[in-house]
Amino acid sequence: MPVLIKLVLKDIRKNKWKIAIFVFQMLVFLFLLMLALARFPIISQGIKAINIIKISNLIRQQEIMSFKDYMNIWSEIYIDKDMYYFFEDLFDKGDNAYSVMESAEPIGFSDRFPDVDGVVFAVGKFDEVFGFDKYKPEPKETYVFVGADVKTIDVGDQIELGMYNKQTYTVDARLKKGEAYLNKTHYRSLDNKVLVLTSFRNTTTLYQYVSLRELIPNIHLINPDIQQIDQVIQMANRTKKFALVPWEVSLRDVIKATFQQSFLWVMLFACFVVSMCIFMICGFISSIYMLIDHNFVEYAVHQIYGATPQMLYLRIILFVIFIVLLPAAIFYNVPDINDFMKVSPELKWVWWFMAIFLFIMVVLVSVLAILRLSKKDLTEFLRRDR
Amino acid sequence: MIIKVQNIKKEYISGRSKNLVLKGVSFEVNRGEKVAIVGPSGSGKTTLLNIIGLLIQPTEGEVYLEGKNVSSLSVKERARMRNKFFGYIFQEFLLVEEDTVFQNIEIPLLYSPHRTTKRKRKEMVREVLEKVGLEVKIKEKVKNLSGGERQRVAIARAIINDPEVILADEPTGSLDVENAEKVMNILEDLVAKGKTLLIVTHNERIAKRCDRIFKISDGHVTIT
Q1: Interface confidence (ipTM) of the complex
Q2: Where are chain A's structural domains?
Q3: Interatomic CA distance for residues B164 and B89, integer angstroms
Q4: For residue A7, which residues of chain B lie inside 8 Å, CB to CB?
């Protein structure tokens, strides 16, 4: 082994400029690969997928039913007392319904809080279904939570909500990264949103009939009986605005709705990353082939004077490992890159991807190099008339 | 007897055509003997030398070195045998051009079962360079040497491990008369010190300086 290491170091000394260029090439490649992977949409899609499966399982276990809604765009919403009290009872007194209002953002809100991507009002058992009750500090009517990525609003800050009536609320808690819910088939991340858990009555006080435009079509019922479903449909019809059709959400529908749009983008991105990897591996293989061809006299002399073919193979493998590990070691120790990864711990998989890629590269290049060397016939080389 | 070759056959296959170069060659070589192998181009001289030197395998037949059959040795054992038993000299020198004289000559020592320190290797390289008259060139790159000097470096490399047998394939083929004479004198000195020399040559004068001449023709050997 010491002899092999000495010979590998000699190979490195002899090829120092070629190695320097390769190391530079490799560093640029690793940097681009890291940037590409870090922005790979599949990361967030992956997190989404996990949440969707979690949420969908929840919905399936509880047999939650939502409704397809057909809206009469020309008619104004009609509200009568019976209808209002029916929905108030359903959400605020009942124990098997929830709904959301997703456009609850007051005028001028986005100017003050540019990183907030909307305010969501949730009523009924929403918190229990999606597990937000764990954020509730004490029993009260309204809770306000901010998403993990919202930087302009902190816990304890006060925000004013409402349209026809206004009310100031104190932010109770910050949600963990990745918190989300499903509105019918649609996945909704809460990372950049403000979530308000409150009552139907309070929502309609703040937003009046505007809130009903969303709360009624977005009704979800937990373990409903047929009679209750009929009642909901009838009451919704009384608004002269909506016709609801019961619809059980399937996991397939959820995944289709969430991933379809980004599929092409993901494919293009994957093609880019794969072509970069292939380009790098091809370049590396051709460099190693050139090295073998250039060094063949030396390999032949070593074999004549006592080296076995296995020793020569090992010498090439050690050389390949060294010239892959050198740029990798430099790259992994650049402080800025480490900081970048620390900021986004969920990008740890990028490190793993790159490490696995480098391992595959070493194995592939070593195997091809060994095949190249083993195909070169020493006896042919020794013939004077070659 | 140091070398015994028994009924050696060697067939080269190229595509569909087969070429039987050696058709059952047998002979013996004694310790300290100087043997020339002659014959027309393509007659199998180099092939025979490479079979004896364990660089290639015969298609049939056996090679005995100091009475031991070496035809069935493993790859590792053959490599070890090449390292300690033979010194090889080639017409085109087979030196690593970008390396120094020292780096070229130390190669057999790197694979020797007796591990040597760099200092010891330097000492040994100096000793053999003195024998071939190139001690001042130890740090020189091979690419800066003349043809005669290169062949002397190749001889130094061949004898650094103190081998029993020196196999020389046209060692003077690329040299002028003066350098060829120098190289032959060095080889004859080695024989005088008890080494065995097998030399492939086209040169009749060199062949006549040997104890015996093995003439290869049509795959058979005639000894004179």
Answers
A1: 0.92
A2: 2-45+257-383, 66-249
A3: 14
A4: 110
